[in-house]
Design a protein that fits this description.
It is a single chain. This protein is an alpha/beta fold. The chain folds into 3 domains: 175 residues, Ribosomal Protein S5, domain 2, CATH 3.30.230.10; 207 residues, P-loop containing nucleotide triphosphate hydrolases (Rossmann fold, 3-Layer(aba) Sandwich); 93 residues, no CATH class. Helices cover 37% and strands 18% of the residues. The strands form 5 sheets. The protein has a 7-stranded mixed beta sheet. Strand 15 and strand 16 form a beta hairpin. Helix 4 crosses helix 8 and helix 15 packs across helix 18. The longest helix has 22 residues. The chain is elongated, with a radius of gyration of 28 Å. The protein starts with a strand and ends with a helix.
């Protein structure tokens, strides 16, 4: 029988074996194996917890090794495993352990002997799913309830769950001798989320959202202040179809590294990033507690909202190049190298000028909005969007005030039934695209796009005159295929390409 805790560093999740050696020498307690300062402090926590639980700590030399010894360990979750290892070596408690089963334990010890939650349940469950041997898992009550919630979620999504696993829940260290163990709460159903106060959208904004969701295209929405860009983001959250379960699960693991606990999202995951974001906040960083996931990986399988995108620092914008192109990025630091998956959909918003008005070059006869900025300032502001980043964004559109959108339409009630109907309609369009093209339009390969261009000189002439690079050419073709899927037609028309090129700014 062996006792394990675990260590999660981004995609790297490994078990940590707790080895205990006790011998007759001057009483002392030593922890080996590149243990961080918080683990070294566990010596006092464990001794105090033993005393509070009326358990006798061995009056001998106690050595605990966390193997493998060449990997730095962090976090307080190893406390419980080390305490169980010491108890196992005490002859009075040999009957509490089955020698044919491995023990996994995760939890922090309080000075009063209480077991405190340490989170990272998605990472632990991911590790246990790979092992088919007989296992016993010791957790705190809060962590155990979250662990059960994740197991039920995986069952619902038809994903694998641990086999031959017995879950034992401890409220305090002395509960180790009690049978039966603490019973978990049975009520773990997902709570319903109240419907937000959504307003009907003008036709042009609705068209942008439809194309963006059906093809899962990276989108940049530009427009003056107060035009309804924030309202469009709420529609994205409620209309986007559920993401792939494997991607969602991977995001749960990333969220484990960002904070101790999280809740399974009730609606489509959407991560919002402010204008002062730094590259380390986006990509992830190494700290005292190991690797901390960034916003790009936390949006894996979902949507990353880049508010006021043109106001972002240049370094923050440019670090999106590799993730937008390859859907993953590699972070290399002194502490190590980590490759993270970040298959997200970028939805960016921004103004057209520093004052947030409507510059003259975008104004039509019906527009009443004005701009106070000099034309050179407007041009300088728009140039903050570099060519390489613009090439990686599929759909770029300027949203104008639509005077013909009558105010009475805002009195129309958006209830849950209508919202589900619209969501179902978008899902049917996406299914049509997958049946027609094999994948969703944003994932169409370059070879497929070039081999399926209609043999018409007008198509090639339009592409060459309206695109500035191969990447923008293929982005336009992918968006045109999305328009074809929205119309549910098997014929690729030049009108589809013309509309797609109109979204290339």
């Amino acid at each position: 029988m062996k006792i394990y805790s675990f260590l999660a560093q981004g995609n790297d999740i490994q078990s940590i074996e707790v080895q205990v050696h006790i011998r007759f020498q001057i009483p002392s307690f030593q922890i080996l194996g590149l243990a961080g300062p918080e683990i070294q402090e566990a010596r006092e926590r464990i001794i105090a917890a033993f005393a509070s639980s009326e358990l006798e700590f061995p009056k001998k030399k106690v050595i605990v090794n966390l193997a493998p010894s060449d990997v730095k360990k962090t976090g307080t979750g190893h406390d419980l495993a080390m305490a169980l290892g010491i108890l196992k070596e005490t002859s009075d408690f040999e009957g509490c352990f089955n020698q044919n089963e491995d023990l996994f334990a995760w939890g922090s010890l309080g000075l009063d002997g209480k077991i405190q939650p340490c989170g990272k349940m998605a990472s632990l469950l991911h590790l246990l799913c790979k092992d088919s041997s007989n296992k016993i898992l010791y957790l705190s009550i809060e962590d155990a309830n979250h662990f059960q919630e994740l197991i039920e979620w995986r069952k619902e999504k038809n994903l694998s769950i641990p086999q031959n696993l017995e879950l034992r829940v401890l409220e305090s260290l002395k509960d180790l001798l009690k049978k039966p163990y603490v019973i978990l709460s049975e009520d773990r159903k997902l709570l319903s989320t109240p419907l937000p106060d959504l307003l009907p959208l003008p036709p042009h904004q609705e068209r942008i959202i439809t194309l963006s969701i059906v093809g899962r295209h990276h989108t940049l929405i530009l427009g003056p202040k107060g035009i309804g860009k924030s309202q469009m983001l709420e529609w994205y959250r409620w209309l986007s179809p559920e993401s792939d379960p494997e991607k969602t699960w991977q995001r749960f693991i990333y969220e484990d590294t960002a904070k101790n606990k999280f809740s399974i999202p009730r609606v489509f995951p959407l991560r919002s990033v402010h204008a002062q974001v730094k590259p380390s906040h986006l990509l992830g960083s190494w700290g005292l507690r190991g690797f901390r996931a960034g916003e790009l990986s936390l949006a894996h399988g979902g949507i990353l909202v880049a508010d006021e995108f043109l106001e972002w620092h240049r370094d923050a914008k440019e670090c999106l190049r590799e993730p937008l192109q390859n859907k993953k990025t590699t972070i290399t630091r002194v502490q190590g190298t980590t490759e993270i998956d970040c298959d997200f959909q970028l939805i960016a918003t921004g103004n057209l000028c520093p004052c947030g008005g409507l510059p003259a070059q975008f104004r039509n006869k019906k527009s009443s909005l004005t701009c106070k900025c000099h034309p050179s300032k407007v041009q300088e502001y728009l140039q903050r969007l570099s060519g390489p980043i613009a090439d990686r964004i599929d759909l770029i559109s300027v949203v104008h005030p639509e005077i013909h959108h009558h105010q009475n339409l805002y009195l129309e009630k958006i209830d849950e039934k209508k919202l589900l109907e619209q969501k179902h309609s978008l899902l049917e369009m996406q299914k049509f695209a997958v049946n027609e093209f094999g994948v969703i339009p944003s994932e169409l390969s370059v070879r497929w796009l070039e081999n399926n261009i209609p043999k018409d000189a007008e198509f090639e002439k339009m592409l060459q005159s309206r695109t500035t690079s191969l990447r923008s050419r293929h982005k336009a073709l992918r968006l045109a295929r999305t328009i074809q899927a929205v119309e549910k037609t098997t014929t690729f028309k030049i009108e589809h390409l013309f509309e797609a090129l109109s979204f290339r700014f």
